[in-house]
Amino acid sequence: MKTYKLLLSVGMLWFGSIMTVNAVGTTPGSVDDPIITKSYLDQYIAQHISDLLNKPGDQNSASPPKTPDHNQGGTAPLSVIKLGSTQTLYGESGTEFIVRSGKVTVVSSEDGVADVTSGKDLSPGTGVELNHLLIVPREGRGIKPDAKNKQDIFVMVRGGYTILNADGTKVTP
Questions:
Q1: CA 45 from chain center: how many Å?
Q2: At a CB cut-off of 8 Å and minimum separation 6, what does 7 contact?
Q3: Strand, coil or helix: what is 165?
Q4: Which of 59, 124, 130, 161 is most exposed, with the fewest beta carbons within 10 Å of its own?
Q5: How many helices (H) and strands (E) does the chain have?
Q6: 148, 124, 149, 152: which is closest to 136 by C-alpha?
Q7: C-alpha distances in Å from residue 23, one per residue of 18, 20, 78, 132
Q8: What does the angle CA 148 – CA 116 – CA 170 come to, to the nearest 5 degrees?
Q9: In angstroms, what is the C-alpha Rg of the chain?
Q10: In whole angstroms, what is the distance from residue 68 CA to residue 156 CA?
């Protein structure tokens, strides 16, 4: 009797699965319902996004991001600058500095530079703490090595900048 019930249960499961496949109309993995890989799907999505971004003449579609050079500011990548012991780094309006090593002070003929990390304005001659984000509010402001500095000065810069030697000559990057 138990064997009969077991065979009946197996038979009903088999019949139910056949009916389900026929009701849906496709078999998983068949030509009508293919199995795709993640790499194919990623490639497919990337291609369609690229096509949408590069669609000419459509004012409402997003345009591909522009890659500005280091002197245009905005979303430019960070540049790593090694500042010489007699050089001064001046930023354009909106330029960001992060001093990674060495001792530097703020240079400005006016108010100074914004230290966003500490939430303070740094006046001319004030020392800059390492790894603090500085933003230049207007041109003519920047940083220079402290007189007591004895190590290399590395600064990460985003935006437009100019490096001047002590004699006023411009350093070409």
A1: 21
A2: none
A3: coil
A4: 59
A5: 2, 11
A6: 124
A7: 9, 5, 59, 65
A8: 55
A9: 32
A10: 16
Percent of the chain with pLDDT over 90: 42
DSSP 8-state assignment for residue 44? H
Phi-psi region of 112 (alpha: psi -120 to 50; beta: other; left: phi over 0): left
Q: What is the DSSP letter of 62?
A: P
- The total of other beta-carbon atoms located within 10 Å of residue 95's CB is 26
Q: Are 117 and 168 in contact (CB under 8 A)?
A: no
Looking up tokens 């703020």 gives 106
Q: Which residues pair with 135 in a beta bridge?
A: 96, 114
Q: Which helix (H) or strand (E) holds 163?
A: strand 161-164
Rounded to 10 degrees, the C-alpha dihedral 18/20/23/29 comes to -80
**Contact assessment for residue 143 and residue 95, using Cβ atoms and an 8 Å cutoff:** no
Q: How confident is the model at residue 19 (pLDDT cuts 50, 70, 90)?
A: low
Are 59 and 111 contacting, i.e. CB atoms less than 8 angstroms apart? no
Residue 28's pLDDT is 66
